[in-house]
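Human: We require from you a standard protein entry with sequence in single-letter code and fold as tokens, and nothing else.

Assistant:
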Amino acid sequence: MPKTDTLIEVTNNIINRSKKSRAIYLQRISDAHEAKVERSHLGCSNLAHAIAPCSAHEKESLAQNAKENIAIVSAYNDMLSAHQPFVSFPPLIKRALAFNGATAQFAGGVPAMCDGVTQSQPGMEMSLFSRDNIAQSTAIALSHNMFDGAIMLGVCDKIVPGMFIGAMKFGHLPIIFAPAGPMESGISNSEKARIRQEYAQGKVGREELLQAESASYHSSGTCTFYGTANSNQMLMEIMGLHLAGGTFVNANTKLRDALTEAASLKLLELSPLGTNYMPIGKMIDEKSFVNAIVGLLATGGSSNHTIHLIAMARSCGIHLTWDDFDKLSSATPLLCRMYPNGSADVNHFHSAGGMAVVIKELLDAGMLHEDVNTVMGFGLSEYLQEAFLQEGKLVYKKAIEKSADKEVISSVKEPFDAQGGLKLLDGNIGRSVIKTSALKAKDRVIKAPAKVFYTQEALKEAFKKGELNSDFIAVLPYQGPKSNGMPELHGLMPSMGALQDSGYHVAIVTDGRMSGASGKVASAIHLSPEAKDGGVIAKIVDGDMITLNCDDGTLVLEISDAELEKREIQTPDLSKNTYGVGRELFSNMRRVVNSAQEGATIFEVVGEES
């Protein structure tokens, strides 16, 4: 099927605006490339330090400089359910490589905080910044130049984007991502959301709430709703950085172990000593990122990736913009219904055919680039396969071509929506994005007076007092990256969702973020410029009329330009956001971070580093 005009236009726009920085990046990784093992240039003292704790057999292999040494970079900790399974991955990887004459070393760990634990807590104000910290940690892990490839063990919200950014600074190496897999399904996500709302309304107590939450998040493995963590996993597969068909295989299963072993062996094939040298910096290109955006839109993925993908692209010299997302969204059908966009979870999605069915539908419609490099080989059609165990060995079979459950995965001919799940909003308040895939038709256009809150807690307190029983748009300024690190404001959802269910027309406007699990309430987020940069959101006062229109892509403060010009910026006391739970250590990041539409990152574009 020929590629669509929109796919071609957006891709060409990205290629043209990225020419200079992409050329610089590719030259850098070409200069870094060694046609032999990386450690061969190390002095004897350097090498002795690097292999000191190894076994005698490993020392001999590493000293001979004849076979690959693979880095393991892991986000393991035993507090995050998604990352706990990684505890067993390094031995699997080392054993698989040893049987093939190669070695592996645990190069380093990266921090991995859980947004589920820090939601509505002070620690959430470090969450977004942890992404760039993870990128730096990844670079430190790989900085010893001992490695001929790397396997990245990460799943959740900031961890995969951070690892990707760090990995791209070693773009001359083959690098693969290996997921831990989701936990098995617990209680339905819709039931969990219902109990959360009832708790916010005082209808049930903390004991009932904790029981419901524990029945949902009940074991090791990734949470099963389609938030940022599982959107990460979708992106890694559609960008060709996972093995085919393995993204949503459950944690702690024999098939998952086999996929992990196979992923490590794939690096030998892709190394300079292998049969198909393919460094990650060359493999991932502008088409890979366009495929990522299309996949995000078609599956109704997390709005957080309107920030992360831009930052990830910058790390390898590629310039993405919100306009790219918006143009692709207008031409990409919504094919999936997973919570919060439906009642199904990722296990239901995988059972219905999962990534292979989605990729097949989009390829057949000319909505994806098939002509891309992947860890599976050349061509995205390599991902139209399913992974199985046959007599204990990993085998691939042709995947089903049509959805096994039309309520979870639809088709391009009969989509859940003609457009993708994200929309760009523009107007006199600034530019923002909104997740539309979970919105009902009646909630797509809202005109209502503003109620301004400077914290989530202030809104929740007003809700408890019964002060919000009306149509209104909640405005939360000073939640941007320069103000307090741009926390997710998912704690607003139970109160705002309850008001919506009561028949009130409500929405949110903020320079902060929303959880990847949000979407029921219209939320114009990532507003740029943010309040701390003098954005108009800092001038809004209670009672101002605001129109949020998803259909025509506008966000308007209904006052005259003359009145707006006269308005003074409201400046609340933000001092309590600067200390406690380690926030002091991130003050320098708040000073230098760029805007949400630039990726909310502290890193410069390739070629413009100071």
